[in-house]
Backbone:
């Protein structure tokens, strides 16, 4: 009988997450992923423009259902995602440690912060409308109400270095308000994102609400930024200013809402504020006369 | 106006085409959320043991066993009729269904196999399912079905005319088909899935009843959504109110999408607590269904034996 | 051919009621120091369910001390993200045990199992979920950048929605960083005591939640205790007044949710079938034991007869009986005392000249029962139009114009809720502007949500529960 140390592990194959399923790229390509220390970890999928196209289609299909759920229901599902993430604390600590070159204690702290960050956002689902919306005291016999609504399909470039905490910090605010998302994972550190997709897939999150692609950001971003069925684009993880500017120019063609990359390094543990939610909501104002 | 010009009579006002709009739009509106909640609350009724057995048998007796496929053949229809007569070959006490529902070309086949059983032959007509044909064609369709032996005619209303507000046209068509039916009973299919709003369902129900419908029916089964509890609730309220106003009782038939015994029992509860027990009879309530029958039989078997049944224990047709 | 529904009883094997319970203080169940015992019964059968404590003054003091200690050393200093996670745990456990809690609520309160299963318990869990999410977001709530809690909250709740009223009190209090001492009503202590177990299962730090059972005296000791920073009370206007008097001159903050005599206003263009449902729900849901019950039907005179015919037809379909039967619509009256009050006021209604009609439903032999009842020909001057009956009794008045409807609806010292039934949107909004009520339901009734603020004008109390507004009661703002 082989001893524990000589048993061969069954390695995970890292695939894309689109429409609630885990397909390979239609291009059949992959690329090697290395740990922070330079060890080969796995081959990740090298997604193509057609994968971007399919992901956007999946996100669009999922949007009416997701936006149409009650805020309470979205909050419940996001909380479930936190439960599942917490359940895999050790697994994620290992992956984050390898990806980012952290010691175990620091990696565990990152995972704990990620769970807490996700829980924080889950609690916003049924409250953001109360903070952003209001009745307006117009000068006439009219009822007038402003409420936030999700903008639609949001393309997101996940942070390049913060492979889990940064990832959840850009993903949660997009979907908690009812948007659906297509994310480009960190190019160098994509593995925690793919494992996170497994968490999403086991949390009652409807397929297509989040879609995750791995590959070359410079290859995929232009397709995402120019796609006319994408309503907004979050360029947070784009490290090349020229690539970001080109993406913003492409986005201008259908007036996508754009979140530009941060000016300097981001402290992902700081209070996120409301901006990542307000960036992806539209405000609808309704009038109705008041009369006998 | 000179002294010799007569004043318009109230009757003239009533006969103007816009009068239909005034009448139908003057019916009480339906709050969709409230109606759906009422239907949902009634769906929580728990029907057990003796009531369940009684209700299952009643549901079987209310089934219009249906086949409406382009691929229907006399062989297929014969098999359906055999099933209608003897739904459960292992149990002679299992009741028969109310009717078999087929296309006009299959009516004579069905009539031959059902002769003397008491099971009605129902035929769709009037260019089912779309209703998009000239009136003469629709009437000829109806007459042919009646001549071939149909006891009941399931017609479709002109939804295009209805949605365009040409209510008097819809009325005239229904009245003409009713005439063409002779002694056959007329069920008027509203195609509620295309009417979209519950207000329209209420208005179409009244229009059909005033025009002479013996039954109002939800759907052709060819369009989604077909029958739903909220839609049927509104139709049951309509027949209840119509009888109160006019003294005439009209039946209700939900059709399409009713697949399980559980669904069927929910409809019976709806009837019981909306229109009332007078409608709990195959003369006044029917299910337009095909696969429902087998689920009713399996539930019936479970009540009798105590264990769950399976698809090998009910006949395909 | 009548469709009889065979008995469909919910199984009670899921609940395990102990013969007696102690007080839940500082994280554990303890014997009373100076209290008595009281029995709690099943109002549908009059059988004794359990013995609980009627806490004495020293018991109350022990509970307040435990709450103070927990506030100062643990809860008041705990970061919001951690408080949130405790509340989420509690919410989850409530969901897991919701069938058990629903059955227990029905047995102790008398309300139909369908209501406790489909209305009470989902709302209970939802309140904890909702307020859990505020615990770490208080700086966004509109009360300043760092709003602080008040300290120790004394909370006294009624018997009509025992666990739901507990949720309405405890969830926001804890989310804001307060600790609590809560007294459930004397006739319905059991779900609160199981909630105490749930706090233990959630590993809630001892002293954050304390549950002390008892009757009026216990409540008085609790709200009058000098080391209480906040009083929250739901119950009768009369007791609310007493509490307000007792709190006068102290530094205690106070919120009250008291009685009501809501007008349910039906116009001639109302969606009639849904209006009938709304009227029935408004006064017969929970046997009429609802502070915001639509107990006055104000119907436009032109449709009075038609509406009453439809209403009586609908009421005759209500199924009254065993609360544990899944098909029961109307359960038991909560106590002999309440039944007597309902009977007395109904007799007064007849004496005042209103016409009385009751649903022809048979009443079980044992237990406390009252058939759904409608009084027509009622006017504003009648006592049954002014006084809260708190039972399944509807008073019907008429009006001619929207202005008259508003005037009659507002012509009461109460102001908790109101209903408007009309197809015309502008009229809804015009009426809503003018109705002096904290909750206005248009084309619906008795709808509750943790995110929607609830509370009254005038003698229906002050303060709001639910929503962002509901945080204010528990913050030092």
Residues:
């Amino acid at each position: 009988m082989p001893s524990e140390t000589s048993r061969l592990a069954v390695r995970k194959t890292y695939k894309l997450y689109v429409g609630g399923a885990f397909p390979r790229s239609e291009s059949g390509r992959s690329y090697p992923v290395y740990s922070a220390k330079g060890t080969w970890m796995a081959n990740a999928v090298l997604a193509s423009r057609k994968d971007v196209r399919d992901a956007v289609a999946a996100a669009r299909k999922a949007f009416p259902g997701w936006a149409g759920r009650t805020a309470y229901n979205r909050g419940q599902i996001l909380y479930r995602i936190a439960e599942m993430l917490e359940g895999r604390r050790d697994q994620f600590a290992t992956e984050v440690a390898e990806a980012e070159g952290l010691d175990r204690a620091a990696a565990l702290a990152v995972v704990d912060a990620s769970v807490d960050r996700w829980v924080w956002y889950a609690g916003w689902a049924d409250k953001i409308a109360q903070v952003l919306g209001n009745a307006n005291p117009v000068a006439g016999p009219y009822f007038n109400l402003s409420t936030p609504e999700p903008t639609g399909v949001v393309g997101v470039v996940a942070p390049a270095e913060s492979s889990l905490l940064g990832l959840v910090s850009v993903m949660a605010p997009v979907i908690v308000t009812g948007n659906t998302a297509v994310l480009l994972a960190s190019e160098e550190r994509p593995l925690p994102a793919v494992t996170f997709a497994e968490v999403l897939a086991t949390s009652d999150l409807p397929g297509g609400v989040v879609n995750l692609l791995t590959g070359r950001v410079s290859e995929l971003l232009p397709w995402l930024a120019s796609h006319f069925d994408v309503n907004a684009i979050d360029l947070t993880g784009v490290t090349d200013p020229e690539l970001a500017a080109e993406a913003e120019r492409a986005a201008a063609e259908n007036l996508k809402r754009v979140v530009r990359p941060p000016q300097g390094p981001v402290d992902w543990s700081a209070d996120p504020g409301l901006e990542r939610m307000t960036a992806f909501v539209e405000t609808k104002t309704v009038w109705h006369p008041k009369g006998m | 106006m000179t002294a010799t010009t007569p004043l318009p009579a109230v009757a003239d006002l009533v006969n103007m085409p816009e009068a239909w709009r005034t009448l139908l739009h003057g019916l009480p509106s339906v709050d969709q959320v409230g109606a759906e909640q009422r239907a949902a609350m009634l769906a929580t009724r728990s029907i057990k043991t003796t009531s369940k057995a009684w209700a299952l048998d009643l549901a079987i007796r209310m089934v219009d066993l249906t086949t409406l496929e382009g691929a229907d053949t006399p062989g297929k229809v014969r098999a359906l009729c055999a099933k209608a007569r003897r739904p459960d070959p292992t149990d002679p006490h299992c009741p028969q269904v109310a009717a078999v529902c087929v296309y006009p070309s299959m009516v004579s086949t069905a009539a031959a196999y059902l002769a003397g059983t008491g099971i009605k032959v129902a035929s769709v007509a009037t260019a089912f399912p779309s209703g998009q044909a000239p009136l003469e064609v629709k009437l000829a369709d109806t007459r042919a079905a009646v001549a071939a032996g149909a006891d009941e005619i399931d017609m479709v209303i002109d939804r295009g005319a209805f949605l365009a507000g040409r209510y008097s046209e819809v009325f005239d068509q229904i009245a003409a088909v009713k005439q063409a039916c002779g002694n056959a009973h007329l069920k008027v299919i509203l195609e509620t899935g295309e009417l979209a709003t519950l207000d329209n369902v209420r208005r179409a129900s009244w229009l059909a009843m005033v025009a002479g419908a013996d039954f109002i029916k939800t759907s052709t089964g060819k369009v989604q959504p077909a029958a739903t509890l909220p839609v049927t609730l509104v139709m049951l309220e309509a027949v209840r109110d119509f009888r109160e106003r006019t003294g005439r009782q009209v039946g209700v038939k939900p059709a399409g999408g009713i697949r399980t015994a559980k669904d069927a029992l929910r409809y019976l509860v709806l009837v019981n607590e909306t229109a009332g027990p007078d409608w709990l009879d195959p003369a006044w309530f029917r299910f337009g269904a095909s696969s429902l029958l087998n689920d009713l039989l399996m539930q019936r078997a479970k009540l009798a034996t105590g264990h769950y049944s399976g698809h090998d224990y009910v006949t395909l047709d | 051919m009548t469709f009889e529904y065979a008995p469909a009883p919910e199984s009670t094997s899921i609940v395990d009621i102990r013969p007696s319970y102690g007080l839940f203080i500082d994280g554990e169940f303890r014997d009373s120091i100076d209290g008595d015992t009281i029995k709690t019964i099943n109002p549908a059968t009059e059988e004794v369910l359990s013995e609980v404590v009627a806490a004495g003054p020293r018991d109350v003091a022990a509970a307040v001390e435990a709450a103070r200690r927990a506030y100062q050393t643990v809860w008041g200093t705990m970061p919001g993200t951690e408080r949130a996670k405790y509340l989420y745990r509690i919410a989850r456990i409530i969901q897991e045990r919701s069938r058990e809690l629903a059955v227990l609520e029905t047995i102790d309160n008398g309300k139909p199992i369908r209501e406790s299963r489909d209305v009470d318990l989902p709302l209970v869990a939802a309140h904890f979920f909702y307020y859990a999410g505020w615990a770490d977001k208080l700086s966004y709530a509109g009360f300043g950048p760092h709003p602080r809690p008040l300290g120790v909250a004394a909370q006294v709740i009624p018997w009509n929605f025992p666990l739901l009223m507990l949720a309405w009190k405890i969830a926001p209090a804890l989310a804001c960083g307060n600790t609590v001492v809560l007294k459930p009503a004397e006739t319905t202590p059991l779900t609160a005591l199981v909630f105490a177990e749930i706090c233990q299962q959630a590993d809630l730090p001892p002293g954050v939640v304390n549950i002390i059972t008892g009757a009026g005296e216990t409540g008085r000791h609790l709200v009058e205790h000098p080391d209480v920073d906040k009083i929250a009370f739901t119950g009768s206007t009369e007791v609310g007044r007493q509490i307000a008097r007792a709190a006068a001159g102290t530094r205690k903050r106070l919120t009250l949710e008291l009685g009501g005599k809501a007008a349910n206003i039906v116009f001639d263009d109302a969606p009639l079938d849904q209006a009938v449902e709304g009227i029935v729900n408004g006064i017969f849901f929970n046997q009429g034991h609802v502070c915001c019950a639509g107990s006055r039907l104000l119907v436009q005179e032109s449709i009075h007869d038609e509406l009453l015919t439809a209403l009586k037809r609908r009421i005759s379909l209500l199924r009254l009986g065993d609360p544990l039967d899944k098909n029961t619509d109307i359960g038991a009256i909560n106590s002999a005392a309440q039944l007597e009050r309902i009977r007395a006021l109904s007799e007064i209604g007849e004496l005042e000249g209103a016409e009385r009609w009751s649903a022809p439903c048979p009443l079980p032999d044992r237990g406390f029962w009252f058939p759904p009842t409608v009084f027509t020909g009622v006017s504003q001057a009648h006592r049954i139009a002014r006084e809260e009956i708190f039972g399944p009794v509807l008073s019907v008045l008429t009006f001619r114009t929207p202005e008259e409807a508003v005037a009659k609806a507002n012509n009461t010292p109460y102001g908790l809720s109101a209903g408007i039934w009309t197809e015309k949107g502008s009229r809804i909004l015009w009426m809503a502007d003018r109705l002096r009520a904290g909750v206005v339901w248009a084309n619906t009734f008795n709808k509750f949500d943790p995110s929607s603020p609830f509370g009254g004008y005038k003698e229906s109390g002050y303060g709001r529960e639910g929503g962002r507004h509901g945080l204010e009661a528990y913050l030092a703002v």
In short: The mean pLDDT of chain C is 97. Residues 23-257+457-476 of chain C form a domain with the Aldehyde Dehydrogenase; Chain A, domain 1 fold (CATH 3.40.605.10).
